[in-house]
Design goal:
Strand order of the largest sheet of chain A: 5-11-10-14-12-13
Largest interface: A-B, 41 and 42 residues
CATH class of the largest domain in chain A: Alpha Beta
Low-confidence stretches of chain B: none
Helix content of chain B: 10-25%
Helix content of chain A: 40-55%
Strand content of chain A: 5-15%
Oligomer: heterodimer
Strand content of chain B: 15-25%
CATH architecture of the largest domain in chain B: 2-Layer Sandwich
Number of domains of chain A: 5
Shape of chain A: globular
Shape of chain B: globular
Radius of gyration of chain B: 19 Å
Largest sheet of chain B: 5 strands, mixed
């Protein structure tokens, strides 16, 4: 890097007030200015921020969207999930490989393209999908690959890096963009034409305490799946002592098969920001933070435009709604490719410019969250519910759903069904009813609430979608007959290997061992003893891991074992013992060197 | 002002604790050993290894980072917890390369000692053979990454006690590694053999050169008594 580069980095660091907690933004800028974060850049950042290079490296090397090595100017990231694979993602990948003359994970010799897999990008209803320079492309076919590459070759200056976050104009140049709306069925939450600030206006007519009372009375619970009562969370945060209070909106929607936050942020952003403002008022917060997953960077311009609009309307800023002392604004923090950052304490770490490793609790974020201050972290959908509760009242909200699960849920449906997309349904409907709604008469099983949720077999399709029975973040992946349950469980196991943060051994090592165990099972080489050993290991990982990621990573294996024991049994090897690696595979390299086959026993 | 002490029970034994103590600290004082690996008495707990996981009020939590609270009901020495802890130790054995018979730390290694204490025989999980290079760039300290168990002790010690930040992590998941604060290796950092960070490694990842066999095999800490015996010796034995 030359002197101009060093000076540019200095300028970026200063533009963020030389504040180490803004390292996510600073490194994102460096990544997209130079295409990667070089050794010199790490050194330069460390010098400018007055910290050690090892601390920069620690953070940069954690995120999938930051590179320490130079890669292609154009980045093609293909969504790799069981859904994308069954919709043909591997054929699309092959078409790209052939057109570029490289394999997945590689960069073309001219430095123009890098092709790689990436975890779910929030387009499960329109797979196969990809992010190309951050722009989402959906419903891809192998025939699209050369067209996309041609468009990229034509676009702009071949020596310059694509702009990031990508603009609508950049997207317009590519085929298969834009993506279609995912909303199939709206309900009370998303129906009607939403007002920009109906929630906030209603809230400002009340005291902050009364706002919290209203949310509590509605019995609203967290929509990420854990179901913590929102009113209680807000009350705890408001009551906790701190110099500042914060509301953080968790838009790190990384659970495979989930895409409701993408819908809410792209089509109903005012409902989200209105909910954050309501929370800001209720908590006594001056700052709201929207943690937007890196995969959704393409929404950046639009979301910033909406924020500017809200500022110009006096909905953000000082003395909002004529209330002296109610000053509130919202900052968007862009993530950089890490599923773990959807875990609330990892999200806080990432917001503070660090690796997204979870924190131990207590203290809980309501006591000590962002920058050590009381912070309420709420799901995007939860905040939209809060907006509507303010607008229409707790009683209205509680009139939908069940006793313990009030309101509606945005169900993200994908896989083997006629009408994938988002369905707003009242809590309490059965899986069967949902399957009828989406057109999936012959579902073999449903992966409910994502890979961290559970595999539900037809015998359980009568169960209800509610906190009292089957709790969910919304992801609903449907698998029809002829799908290989075990191979799907293996793919989900591989997902957790990629996304484990590495902090604790049960998850760091355990997820890898589970994937290896599952590979042996899928290959039909596992014995009964292997099955028992994999199950025991899965339970240890579940019991011993530090955070929700490790505690749920064994679920794809454990819940398919529970729901489909006969499929596991049918795949068992009859031998008493099978080595993990077959002898021929272990000897392959030696055989090649020697140019002869080993002498077989008894030959 | 002396803060009010309170009590909780662990495996049915009543333990006195003071506000601010972790479950692990209070139990240590009372002479009750909770197996642990990444914890070091001189360093802030990181909750990294999860070996000290106990069943606390019905939930699994790491004792080193759980504040002691009045009336807690804790399970520690149960067959299930022992099996889970053993499985975690085994994971660390197969993740790195740990050839005890010819390792310089044998008999003084906390990983090995926990393997013995928790009844590990031979790992049933497959070895991962990571193939991490040795960093021999420092004149006085060898850094054998093959042995590293990513406990974070050296990182914490270097940052908080030595004020140097010689160590950090790099990468994530199974690819996570210990990293040093110089592209040229440990020899190009501020590290010195007298640093706290050089003496806290529980295994033979950070080894001070030329002193490894001052105490011969057979006469080392855990050759004489199992790990945790020092803590258990504090517990007043009921007179017969």
């Amino acid at each position: 890097m030359n002197a101009a580069g060093t000076a540019w980095i200095g300028g970026i660091v200063r533009s963020f007030g030389s504040d180490r907690t803004r390292l996510m933004d600073i490194v994102t800028a460096v990544q997209h200015q130079f295409g990667y974060v070089s050794d010199e850049a790490v050194q330069s950042l460390a010098t400018d921020l007055g910290i050690h290079p090892v601390e920069i490296e620690e953070m940069v090397s954690f995120y999938a969207f930051f590179d320490r090595q130079e890669r292609g100017r154009n980045r093609i990231r293909l969504s790799n999930t069981p859904i994308s694979v069954m919709k043909g993602a591997r054929d699309v990948a092959r078409a790209f490989e052939e057109a570029l003359g490289i394999r997945l994970g590689e960069t073309t010799a001219d430095g123009a393209f890098t092709l790689q897999w990436t975890s779910d990008i929030g387009l499960a209803d329109q797979e196969p999908a990809a992010l190309v320079n951050g722009i989402p492309l959906a419903a891809l076919t192998p025939e699209d690959a050369p067209l996309i590459l041609a468009a990229l070759r034509q676009a702009g200056d071949p020596s310059a890096l694509p702009a990031y976050p990508p603009s609508a104009a950049d997207a317009a140049r590519l085929p298969n963009a834009p993506i279609r709306s995912s909303l199939v069925q709206a309900g009370p939450l998303l129906g009607g034409s939403p007002d920009k600030a109906a929630g906030l206006r209603a809230a400002l007519a009340l005291t902050p305490e009364a706002v919290i009372d209203e949310i509590t009375a509605s019995k609203l619970r967290g929509r990420g799946g854990a179901g913590f009562p929102t009113g209680l969370k807000w009350r705890l945060t408001r009551k906790a002592t701190g110099v500042e209070h914060y509301i953080a909106c968790n838009a790190d929607e990384g659970e495979p098969g989930t895409f409701k936050d993408r819908l809410l942020l792209s089509e109903f952003p005012d409902l989200v920001f209105d909910g954050m403002s309501v929370a800001g008022y209720a908590l006594g917060a001056r700052t709201g933070l929207l943690y937007l997953r890196g995969e959704y960077a393409y929404m950046w311009d639009d979301l910033q435009r909406v924020l500017r609009e809200r500022r110009s309307l006096g909905l953000l800023g000082t003395g909002i709604g004529g209330k002296a002392g109610f000053d509130f604004d919202i900052r968007i923090q862009l993530g950089a490719g890490a599923y773990i950052c959807g875990e609330e304490s990892s999200l806080l770490e990432s917001l503070e410019g660090k690796r997204g490793s979870p924190r131990d609790r207590p203290p809980f974020p309501t006591e000590r969250g962002y920058l050590g201050q009381p912070t309420a972290i709420d799901n995007v959908e939860t905040l939209v519910c809060a907006t509507r509760i303010m607008e229409k009242g707790a009683a209205w909200f509680a009139s939908f759903g069940t006793k313990e699960s009030t309101g509606t849920k945005l169900m993200c449906v994908s896989g083997d069904c006629e009408r994938p997309g988002i369905y707003e349904t009242p809590f309490g409907i059965t899986i069967n009813e949902l399957l009828d709604l989406v057109g999936a008469p012959d579902a073999q099983y449903v992966q409910f609430s994502g890979p961290s949720g559970q595999a539900v077999a037809p015998k359980d399709f009568g169960r209800r979608i509610a906190y009292e029975d089957l709790s969910t973040g919304g992801s609903t992946m449907i698998f029809g007959p002829n799908r290989d349950v075990l191979d799907i469980a293996l793919q989900f196991s591989a997902f957790f290997v990629d996304e484990s943060c590495g902090w604790c051994p049960p998850c760091r090592v355990g997820t890898t061992l589970l994937k290896q165990g599952m590979e042996k099972i899928v290959a039909g080489r596992a014995t009964l003893a292997d099955l028992a050993s994999t199950e025991a290991l899965a339970n240890t990982v579940l019991r011993m891991s530090r955070c929700g990621l490790g505690q749920t990573a064994p679920n794809p294996i454990l819940t398919t074992m529970r729901s489909f024991p006969e499929i596991y049994e049918s795949r068992l090897a009859s031998a008493d013992f099978e080595p993990l690696v077959p002898l021929q595979d272990a000897l392959r390299a030696a055989v090649q060197v020697q140019g002869r086959d080993p002498v077989k026993d008894g030959a | 002002m002396v803060a009010e002490s309170f009590s909780f029970t662990i495996d049915g034994i009543v333990v006195q604790a003071r506000p601010g103590q972790s479950v692990l600290q209070a139990c240590d004082e009372a002479g009750i050993y909770i197996p642990r690996l990444c914890h070091h008495p001189d360093l802030a707990p990181s909750g990294a290894c999860r070996v000290c996981t106990c069943r606390i009020n019905g939930r699994n939590s790491a004792a080193c980072v759980t504040p002691a609270a009045p009336g807690m009901v804790i399970e520690n020495d149960t067959p299930l917890l022992t099996a889970d802890r053993r499985a975690v130790i085994e994971m660390l054995f197969v993740e790195g390369n740990h050839p005890c018979p010819y390792c310089v730390a044998s008999g003084d290694c906390e990983l090995q000692a926990l393997g013995y204490r928790l009844g590990m025989v031979a790992p049933v999980q497959p070895y991962q053979w990571p193939g991490r290079p040795i960093d021999a760039t420092h004149p006085d300290i060898a850094l054998d990454h093959d042995r590293c168990i990513l406990c974070a002790r050296c990182i914490e010690a270097s940052r908080m006690q030595d004020g140097k930040s010689v160590f950090g992590f790099a990468g994530r998941g199974i690819a996570m590694r210990l990293n040093v604060d110089a592209a040229g290796g440990l020899g190009d950092t501020q590290m010195a053999a007298i640093d706290k960070a050089a003496s806290v490694c529980p295994v033979a990842c950070i080894v001070i050169k030329r002193g490894s066999y001052r105490i011969p095999n057979g006469e080392r800490r855990f050759d004489k008594a199992p790990i945790g015996s020092d803590i258990e010796a504090r517990r007043a034995r009921p007179t017969p």
